[in-house]
Structure prediction request, 185 residues.
Amino acid sequence: MPKPNHKEVLLDAGLAAFHRRGYHATGVQEIVSSAGVPKGSFYSHFESKDALGLAALARYWEDRAKARALLRDASLPGLERLDRYFAALGYSEDGCLIGNFTAELGQLDAFREDLSRLWRQWTDALSQCLADGQRDGSVRTDIPVTELARTVLALWEGAVLSAKVERGPKPLNIARRTLRRLLAP
Prediction:
């Protein structure tokens, strides 16, 4: 029987705990207990809780690559791609780890650079989709795509936060309907 990969088990446990409870409310002991590995294994793979937090953030972003691929589906108009993307993200009672970490850790030097990079990448992916939508006529052209993308992202993340509080997808559904109306020409 192969030896379990403690690093991956710790990363999975850390990601789940950070997403569910938040970074500051999650301790290393909770993570190693959840992972079922000795505490010494944690420090063999991660130099600190911050290192695990950054790895969890990267994993979270990677795990959403399939959804982001919907933004590049050239067989569909840009506005439809955007709507399908947000539908694929769906509702999570824990919200969005990127948004959660930004609110909780955005002022900390250890996290600011990675969070800033992810927000730029996310904005760039949305901008490309919106630019395609402007070319295919499904997205309004009177506002630059980068401004639209930042506004779309702010509206979506606000809806994600509201959905956490309301414990249901209603704010996300409202956001999707509103975005379709606001972005259409």
The chain has two domains: 1-63, 64-185. Residues 2 and 29 are 25 Å apart (CA to CA). The chain has a mean pLDDT of 94.
